[in-house]
Amino acid sequence: MPRNLKDTYLQKSDEELIDLFLIDFHNLNEEAQGTLEEVLRERDLHEKVTFLQGLYENLSDEQLQRYAQALSALPCPSCNGTDEALTAGFSSAAFSILVFTNYEKRFLISCPTCLRKRTTRATVSSLLFGWWGIPWGPIRTIQALVNNAKVSQYLPNHEPNEWLQAFALQNLHRIELGKDEPQRLRDLIR
To answer: Across the chain, what does the average pLDDT equal?
Structure first.
């Protein structure tokens, strides 16, 4: 294996190496996998990675719910409020000019009030500016309106919804590593 690959791995933070192992390991060739495992052992991260990998493999529905609830208990990244449990959803918007149409769908974690404001703004914006492109303007506008209405169905929700649970599952190792560092978890949901 070229020495520069090991040097590249050595320049990465512990968290970046853990992400690489847990998320992209199967995409690496055999030599790169071996080099990554070597660097993890040199940094004494192999046990931590093995523990985190075991979390994914043995995760129960109740455990996933607890991880999602840990996220839902954080202050809202939009308003910094703590009165409502956080939830997740998508805000969709369409914008068109003649033959150009832009469609944007953003994943958000926030309190229900802030999420409702974002989807309402996106809905109004789509109604005003989404229709004016041919042929995609009307299609994308309707898509945005339907998606925003779907998100509104989940508000308010006192239990973490499926989107927040999916986010928790995807970021399980980051939540576990940051469970004693609230700022780290707040940064994760921004």
So the answer is: 93
For 99-109, b/e burial (b = at least 16 CB within 10 A) is eebebeeeebb
pTM, two decimals, is 0.84
Does the pLDDT at position 1 exceed 70? Answer: no
- pLDDT tens, residue by residue, 135-170: 999 999 999 999 999 998 877 777 899 999 999 999
The amino acid present at 166, given as its one-letter code, is A
